[in-house]
Every structure is written in structure tokens, then in C-alpha cells.
Write a structure and sequence with these properties.
This protein is of the alpha/beta class. The chain folds into 2 domains: 2-192, HUPs (Rossmann fold, 3-Layer(aba) Sandwich), CATH 3.40.50.620; 211-306, GMP Synthetase, Chain A, domain 3. It is 43% helix and 20% strand. The chain contains 12 helices and 9 strands. The strands form 2 sheets. It has a 5-stranded parallel sheet, with helices on both faces. The longest helix has 20 residues, at 98-117. The radius of gyration is 20 Å and the shape is globular. The structure holds xanthosine-5'-monophosphate (XMP). Residues 102, 150, 152-154, 196, 198-200, 240, 274, 311, 315-317 line the site of xanthosine-5'-monophosphate. Keywords: ATP-binding, Glutamine amidotransferase, GMP biosynthesis, Ligase, Nucleotide-binding, Purine biosynthesis. Its EC number is 6.3.5.2.
Length: 319
Amino acid sequence: DWTMAAFRDTKIAEIRAQVGDRRVICGLSGGVDSSVAAVLLHEAIGDQLTCVFVDHGLLRAGEAEQVERLFRDHYNIPLIARDASDLFLSALNGVDDPERKRKIIGGLFIDVFQEEAQKVENAGLLAQGTLYPDVIESVSFAGGPSVTIKSHHNVGGLPERLNLELVEPLRELFKDEVRALGRELGLPERMIGRHPFPGPGLAIRIPGPVSADKADILRKADAIYLEEIEKAGLYDAIWQAFAVLLPVKTVGVMGDSRTYDHVCALRAVTAVDGMTADSYPFDHAFLSQVATRIINEVRGINRVVYDVTSKPPGTIEWE
Ligand code: XMP
């Protein structure tokens, strides 16, 4: 696409002019936006870029490994990957309020990121994959009711804390344009088409207190669900699909014995921008297949339900 090729060249020139011979830090989340930003920056300034990836222990199955493989091994981008699972999980111990979970994770994220970023000597700039809708949203919703529903954490406050100049090469782009730019840059299609994933991760998909055990159970169920969705060729027709681990135990029967385990809820929605959404109308046979696999393969879950709520009145996430 010639427009994206031109955009890429223009941006590369702009980035070089802004950065000069300084060093840049770019936070990676595993999502599309920060990945595209990082690869674009790498093309522009090579090893003057260092990426920082913080694993809060509430990522999906295999996610940290995928980020390391893609950026460090495939692109050869200097990458600091910090496993801070223990820190986040102990801070979340006993916390059940969704907004407190977000605040704790958001705050700790900034602390850990700062700690890692300080290891990069002479860093002068911080790169962020901010998109045009993020720019607009922070203006038009200021003080409005939408932002108070859920405090979205996307490393807000980080640039001030680090005292770094910002580079935001995707600021003029919408999501579909970021994807087109990602293709232009040769990012794998799997990364470009990835479903959105919230900053607080699995913490807001485990209503009630979060623990490492619950996160492990949820990760397994979620991976099976997504594997089945991909096998059925439905991944790209869905905006977001994920499992939720409920703090409710119910009775079941497995072979000759009674079980007493958690309920897992499955969520899948179609949406254009995430502001409104409809639940995805899976075949019953598909849902039964997923339920059977989860119950057979995941210790700790003995019942699976499907969430048919649209947004509004529901939200996409359960917290
Ligand atoms: P809701 O649940 O509000 O979600 O309908 C709309 C979209 O936003 C994502 N989401 C978040 N993303 N931090 C994020 O970075 C958050 O705290 C957060 N909460 C929700 C959600 O996954 C969906 O794509």
C-alpha cells in the first residue's frame, strides 16, 4: 500500500530528526500498537532503541515467551524483560475491588518500568504506541461519565515520572491504519490481528481475590478456548474472546466421584471500536466442545457457561 509506505518513510525521517543521537526506551505490552511502534523505531534508529517488557504474572499462556522470541530473537532489538510476577501477585493478595486491582497494577507497573528503564544509560526519550483515538478520548471524555466506569491503565504518568521526552509515532493513526503499517513493516499476521488485551490482564478476569493458582487455571482454560476458536476459523470474526474464572464453586461428577470446583465463563464479542459490543453467536456444538475440553483438561474447573450480555448494558470485561 503506497500510502503506508510513504507514511513509514516520513515517520522514519521524523523520528531520526527528533531523536538525534539520543537513546530511546519503548515499553512493549505484547499488543499490536506497542509492537508496531517498536519495529518502526527500530527501523529508524536501530540499536539506539531499547525495549522494556514487564511481565506482571497476569498475561495469557506463552505471552512473555512470544514477546521475547519476536523482539529479541527475530528482530534483534535490545530487550529488557523483567518477570515481576511475584511482586504483583503479592501486592494483589486479598484484593477484590476491581478499581483497586487496576490502581495497584498500574502503580506497580510504573515503579517496575522505571526501575528497568533506569538501567538504560543516557536514555533521553520514551516511545509510546498512542493512537489517535487515545488522544481524542483523553480530551473528549475528560470529566465525563465514561472514564469513571473503569480507569484504563496505559502507562499514564510514566513520561512525567521518568522525565523523558515522548516519541509517539502512531499518534495520527487509527487501529486499522496501525495494522496496515504493521504489515508494511513485515510484522507477523498473528501479531497484527491480535485481539485487544487489557493492561491489568487476567486480574480483571478473576472476580474476587487473585492468586497465582487461579491465574494458572484461567490461563489453561483461556488457551483451550482460543485454540478452538482458531481451529474453527473464527478468530478474525471476533473482536475479543477470553475466559473468566468465577469465584463460585459448584458440584459436578467426574467418573464415580463428586467434584466441587470453579465455574468458568466464556466471553466472545463482536465490536467495531469496543465502545459497544454484541456477544458472538457460536453454535451450541462449538461451545459444548470447548466446555468438554476445558473440564477434561483443566484441573479446578467443572462447569462452563457462556456470557450472552451485550455492551451496553454489560461491559466487555467482567470487572
Ligand atoms: P470494557 O470492559 O470497558 O472494555 O467494555 C472495553 C475495552 O477496553 C479493554 N479494557 C482495558 N484496557 N486497561 C486496558 O488497557 C484496562 O483497565 C481495561 N479495561 C478494559 C477491554 O479489554 C476492551 O477491549
